[in-house]
Amino acid sequence: MITAEHLTKRYARRGRAVTAVEDVSFTAQAGRVTGFLGPNGAGKSTTLRMLCGLTTPTAGAATVLGRPFAALPNPGRHVGVLLDAAAQHPGRTGREVLAVSARLMDVPAARVDALLDRVGLTPQEAAARVRTYSLGMHQRLGLAHALLGDPAALVLDEPANGLDPAGIRWMRELLRGFADAGGTVLLSSHLLREVEAVADDLVIIGGGKVLAQGGTAALLAAPGSRVRSLDDPALARALEAAGHEVRLDGALVTSAPAEEVGRAALGAAVVITDLRPATDGLEQLFFTTTARHGREEVPA
Ligand SMILES: Nc1ncnc2c1ncn2[C@@H]1O[C@H](COP(=O)(O)OP(=O)(O)OP(=O)(O)O)[C@@H](O)[C@H]1O
C-alpha cells in the first residue's frame, strides 16, 4: 500500500512561491493498479518524487508499505521505482546496469538474466551499451530494474512511453499480473486507453490538487443505459414518450435504467440486441474533470 497524506510542495521561482502540489491525499491499495492522471504540469512527477523520497514535501507525508520511503531498509527490495527510464548510465550495457544494482541490493546475480528475459530484452540487446537503446528498450530495462528486488510495490511514471503496441499490451499484462499477485501498482500515464484498461482505481489531479479519485468503474459509471436494438428510432421514441432522455451516440444512450428500457422495448415491440450500463470513457472523464487545468490553449 502507498499513501499520500496532505502532500504539498512549493517551489520558489524568481522570488515567488509556486505551488506544484497542494494537499494531495490518496491511497494506492495492495492487489490493485492505481492510475495517476493529470495534464502536463499537474504535479504528478512531483508527487511521485515525494513518495519515493526524492523531493522533500513542504507539508504532508507519504508512506510506502507503511513507512516513509527513506525509512525502508534496502528500499529496492520493497518498492520498484521507474521515474525516468533515460536516467540509466549510458556507458554501461543493459546487463551491467542490472548487475550493479543487483549487487547493491544484495539480489542473486541469476535474477539479472531472468529479468532481462522477463522484460523481453534479447542477449544481444542486454550486451549493448545503454546509450544505443531506443526509448522502448530504455523502458524495458527500467522496468527490469524496478522489478529486480522482487518488490511488493511499483511506482511507475509513464512506463509505456515509447513502447510499440505489442510492448504496451505486454506492459499491461505484466502490471495486471503483479497486482493480481498482491502487489501495489501506482501508475502515472498519459495513455488514457491503457490506464482505462488496467487501472482498478484512479486519482486525477490538476493544478496540483486532487480533482477526482475512486474506483475506475464507479468513476466512469454514468446513470442510465446504452442499448442496441433492431429499431433504435422506434425505441428512442418509446423511451422519450415515457419521459426518459435519449441520445444516439453510435448506440442509443438513455437516462432510463435497464428495466425501463425493457418495458419501453416491450411496449414498442422492438428487439433489444445489447443492453448495458452507460459509461463515459476515461478520455471523457479526464477532459471533463481537468477542463480548467488543461493546456489546450497552448499551441502545439
Ligand atoms: N524543481 C522545480 N522547481 C520549480 N518548479 C518546479 C520544479 N519541479 C516542478 N516544478 C513545477 O511544478 C509544477 C508541476 O510539475 P510536475 O513535473 O510535477 O508536473 P507533471 O504532472 O509531472 O507534468 P508532466 O505531465 O508534464 O510530466 C509545474 O508547474 C512545474 O513547472
From TrEMBL:
Pfam families: ABC_tran. GO terms for molecular function: ATP binding; ATP hydrolysis activity. Keywords: ATP-binding, Nucleotide-binding, Transport. InterPro entries: AAA+_ATPase, ABC_transporter-like_ATP-bd, P-loop_NTPase. SMART domains: AAA. Residues 2-232 form the ABC transporter domain. Belongs to the ABC transporter superfamily. This is ATP-binding cassette domain-containing protein. It comes from Georgenia ruanii.
